[in-house]
Design a protein that fits this description.
Length: about 120
Amino acid sequence: QVTLVESGGGLVQAGESLRLSCAASGLTFSTYAMSWYRRAPGKERELVAHISTYGSTTNYADSVKGRFTISRDNAKNTVYLQMNSLKPEDTAVYFCNSRRANYDYWGQGTQVTVSS
């Protein structure tokens, strides 16, 4: 059984930082591309950041470029999202996603709230 467990969310003030973690189990982690998505209240889910299997390629939403960094540790089966200079508009539930061919798995999400 594949599980993805996010952690690290919380309530912070604008300008502060958080680091999200997503621990994966039940899959060969290094063969999956990993992504972070978020869903803000009243909005559709959006892709925040993506990292290839060995981390050679990363992509970011325009809204987070220069502030967020995605990384992974294949030895620990974990993907991270370092979020700096947080803004109130970053408030959302953040989800971890793993994907390979027809296999697509999601975590339960972690809440990030940024106060102004």
